[in-house]
Amino acid sequence: MDFGFSMTQSPPTESRWAGAREVMGMSGPIILGSLSYTIMQFVDQVIVSRLGLDELAAMGSAGVWSYVLGCLLFGIVGCVSTFVSQCYGRGDKENCARYAWQGIYLSLLAVAMALALWPLSGALFRAMNHSPEVTELELTFFRIRLFGYLPMAWATALASFFQGIGRPGVPMYTAIAANIVNLVLNYGLVFGHFGLPRMEIAGSATATVIAIAFQVVLLQAVFLSGRVNAQYGSRRVWRFDFVRARELCRIGFFAGLTIFMDVANWAIFTSFIVGHFGAVSLAAHNAAIAFMHLCFMPALGINQGIAAIVGMYVGRGRHDTAESRSYTAMRIACVYMFLLGLVFAFFGKGLVAFFFTKDPGVIVLGHQLLILAAIFQAFDAVNIVALGALRGAGDTRYVFYLTLAFAYGFFLPLSLILAFVAGWGAVGAWIGATAYIIGLSGLLFRRFRSGRWREMDIFLSH
Fold it and tell me: Could you tell me which residues come within 8 angstroms of residue 162 by beta carbon, excluding any fewer than 6 positions away?
């Protein structure tokens, strides 16, 4: 398939370098913030893995589900960056802060979500048919993480505001500070160090919730600071605005559904397909996913960065520049993820053994899964960047329906067939996932290349 990286309309070399500098100038701080979060998650898993295979398996499954069930809301408030960046591009600074406040108000829905999910969580995890010990650990971890829904949504809204105005360093520094807090608390609460109680897997979940709340305090303080207020009126435009909240929901709803669908598919894949084959398969899968996050999370930083860049240029009416910057971002992400894929393929056994477990079954299977992950890394880079570019322009509805159809018409059925009918187990399931990611990358790239996103108008309140 032609991924369009040698385009007839490509700018000259100097412009390409200028584009690369702009992409990395916006994405770099987001990547560093995401990387610090990825390292935090990775270290959390390493710490919890010292408690045993059951704890590691439970943390992976419950962690995925604690995120997937909040994805709709996180996706909605994450689209604050789409509106803020387009307002910023148009020179409408006061509305930048106004949309941020609407994101904050919508984040309050997290309280209702957490209250609704608490009593339902028992049935959810028992339906996965894991061992009673793993199920109990999953419930403990999941229910504590529900307390993090509100601060997570709030932090997402504020981080999206700062990305949208071209100041990604603010969420980066606050994320690094929060992750340091999480690391110290995680180690202390899991094992009972620093005078803290020994809470084991519950301590890991508690540390994460406290750290996210700490980040919200930092972000809110900067948002209401004199400098930001002088430029954007952040203290003046705090009132709820139904029309703008509706705009945010109209675009963000499908963005949130897309994230929800993607993460839900992987949660189903983890808990009901791979998890069916026992603790060894689940532990190997979770180890492979942890290493994949080292690829995915920085690429997600490029996703968020290009969303803001596209939004700014769309706001200025410079769609050609938005398109050019998107292709530049794809090139950068592809090179990065391809190189890390090579590391997975050649050093997978050693990585699993060093960081997670000496269990030979987990090491061998984990390496096999990492080889498959290496195959699709560059294709996943196209997925990630195309999603960000389309979201920055407000093209979210089509992406959701595409993801829905391809996931349930191809990904999950193929994974089930290869895992259970063909009898290939977890490896068969991952082969299905590999085919899905490669196919989806072509479909998303075609949508972006079509230029339909140029016709989008996200504002109802002109």
Answer: 168, 170, 171, 219, 222, 223
Distance CA 293, CA 337 (A): 11
Condensed to tens digits (0 to 9), the pLDDT of residues 29-53 reads: 998 887 777 777 777 888 888 888 8
Residue 343, CB-side half-sphere exposure with 13 Å CA sphere: 13
Q: Are 75 and 111 in contact (CB under 8 A)?
A: no
Q: Can you count the helices (H) and strands (E) in the chain? A: 18, 0
7: in domain: no
Q: Is residue 2 part of a domain?
A: no
CA distances from 203 to 60, 193, 308, 436 (A): 15, 11, 36, 36
Q: Which of 373, 374, 375, 397 is nearest to 447 (CA)?
A: 397
**Per-residue pLDDT for 12 more than 70?**
no
Across the range 227-253, mean pLDDT stands at: 95
In this structure, is residue 234 part of a structural domain? Answer: yes
- Domain count of the fold of the chain: 1
Find, among 336, 327, 293, 331, the residue nearest to 309 by Cα. Answer: 327
Above 60 in pLDDT, residue 260?
yes
125, part of any domain = yes
Range of the domain at 219: 25-451
Q: Which two tokens stand for residue 355?
A: 């960081």
CA 106/CA 76 separation, integer angstroms? 8
Long-range contacts of 357-362 (CB under 8 A, 24+ apart): 357/49, 357/53, 357/56, 357/283, 357/287, 359/53, 359/280, 359/283, 361/280, 361/284, 362/53, 362/280, 362/283, 362/284, 362/287
Is the CB of residue 214 less than 8 Å from the CB of residue 178? yes
